[in-house]
Design a protein that fits this description.
Elements: H1 2-10, H2 17-39, H3 42-49
């Protein structure tokens, strides 16, 4: 199975750059995410973490009794 994929990829000029680009995107994304997590304000984190527990809205799909 791998020899079919490898054989096709060997015929493409410049294909060796794609794994490096994907690794770079992966590294930049998780570095930025790591930076955001440690620099986020505690008040914002607490506000966002309480969203699932808030009962501010009325669900219009349920029938009223």
């Amino acid at each position: 199975m791998l020899k079919f994929i490898k054989g096709n990829l060997e015929n493409i000029d410049g294909v060796e750059i794609y794994p490096m680009i994907s690794l770079l995107i992966f590294f930049i994304f998780f570095t930025a995410l790591f930076w955001w997590v440690f620099t986020a304000k505690k008040a914002h984190i607490e506000e966002v973490s309480n969203i699932p527990l808030a009962d501010d809205t009325i669900n219009t799909n349920e029938p009223l009794l």
